[in-house]
Amino acid sequence: MNRRLTLAIPSKGRLREPSWSLLEASGVDPQEPGERVLQSHCRNAEIDLLFVRADDVPEYVQDGVVDCGITGLDLVNEQASDVEVLLQLGFGKCSLQAAVSVEDSATSLADLEGRRIATSHARLAREALSDRKINAELVKVAGSVEISPRLGLADAIIDLVSTGSTLRTNGLRSLGVLFESEAVLIGRSGSTDSEARRTLTTLLASVINARASRYLLCNVEKSRLDEVTALLPTTGSPTVMDLATPGIVAVHALVPASIIWSLLPKLQACGASAILTLPVERMVP
Ligand code: AMP
Predict the structure, then answer these.
(1) 24-28, 29-33, 107-111, 192-196: lowest mean pLDDT where?
(2) 3-class secondary structure for the chain?
(3) What are phi and psi of 63, to 5 degrees?
C-alpha cells in the first residue's frame, strides 16, 4: 500500500511564500495551517505538510522525519546534509559573495589572501576559499555580517546576496561570486524512489517549466511561413494550421518567456499579425 508523503516547507522567511505558491500552482491544494499549527495536509494529494524553519529542513529530511523538503541549496551544503537534490525550484536565487569596503584596495578574490573575513556561512566559505587556494582567517558571526568591516571586526565579508542593495547600502563592493544557490526540493538520499515522491517531483517540475514558457499564436502569410518558423526555438515543432482566409496560416508554438520581448518585433517584421502570448499552467516535456 502507498503511504502518505510528508513534505517539510519553510514556515517563515523569504522561501515561505514562493514555496507555498508553487504548491498551490501544482494543484495539490495545500491547506493553510491554523495559527501556530505546524502541520497540515493537501486536499488533492496524499501529502502531509510540516512547517519548519528553512535551516531545519535538511536535517529533517536527512533523519527521515519527513520524506521530502523545500529549502535553500546553500543550507543543504552549509550543513553538509546527506540528502538528494531532486529538483531546482527556480526561486530563492542568491549567491555567496565576498565583499570589501568600497575604500579597500582589493580588486579580486585572490586579494583576500591572509585577511580576516566575517561570515555566517563558515563551511561554504571555507570550502570556496580552499577550492581557490586562498588562505584567510574566518570570523564566524550570526547576523548583520555587513557591518563587520565598519566595526573593525574583519577586512571583508562573505555573505548571501540577491540584488546587491544591502552591500551598496553598507558601503561594500563585491569581489566575486563563490557559490550560487536557489530553492531546491530535497529527498532522503538512498531511499528507494517512491511513486509519491516521483509524482511530486514531476508535478512541481511541470509548474516550473510552465512558468518559464509562453504559448505563442500568430497568423502569417503562407509564403512567409519559413521566415517565421526560423525565428522559433528549434525544440518542438510548431503547429501550423490553415485559416478560412486562403493563403494565411496560424502558427502555434511554445517559446521561452525570456525571448518574448525580442521575438515579437521580429515576428512583426516577417508580416505576422494577431500575435498572442498566453501563460502556460503546466508543461511535462
Ligand atoms: P530566511 O532566512 O528564512 O529568510 O531564508 C534564507 C534563505 O533564503 C537562504 O538560505 C537562501 O537560500 C535564500 N535567500 C535568497 N536570497 C537571499 C539573500 N539575499 N540573503 C539571504 N538569503 C537569501
Answers:
(1) 192-196
(2) CCCCEEEEEECCCCCHHHHHHHHHHHCCCECCCCCCCCEEEECCCCEEEEEECHHHHHHHHHCCCCCEEEEEHHHHHHCCCCEEEEEECCCCCEEEEEEEECCCCCCCHHHHCCCEEEECCHHHHHHHHHHCCCCCEEEECCCCHHHHHHHCCCCEEEEEECCCHHHHHCCEEEEEEEEEECEEEEEECCCCCCHHHHHHHHHHHHHHHHHCEEEEEEEEEHHHHHHHHHHCCCCCCCEEEECCCCCEEEEEEEEEHHHHHHHHHHHHHCCCEEEEEEECCCCCC
(3) -85, 0
How large is the C-alpha radius of gyration of the chain? 24
Which tens digits make up the pLDDT trace of 30-60?
999 888 889 999 999 999 999 999 999 999 9
Measured in Å, residue 143 CA sits from the centre of ligand 1 at 12
Give residue 281's identity as a one-letter amino acid code.
E
- How far is 229 from 222, CA to CA, in rounded Å? 11
Reported confidence tier of residue 235, pLDDT bands at 50, 70, 90 = confident
pLDDT in tens, 60-77: 999 999 999 999 999 999
Question: How far is Cα 124 from Cα 134, in angstroms, rounded to an integer?
Answer: 14
- pLDDT of the residue at 191: 78
Res 2: pLDDT? 58
- Ligand 1 contacts CB of residue 13 (under 6 A): yes
Kindly report, residue by residue over 125-134, the tens digit of the pLDDT. Answer: 999 999 999 9
Q: Kindly state if the Cβ of 15 falls inside 6 Å of ligand 1.
A: yes
CA of 21 from ligand 1 middle (Å) equals 17
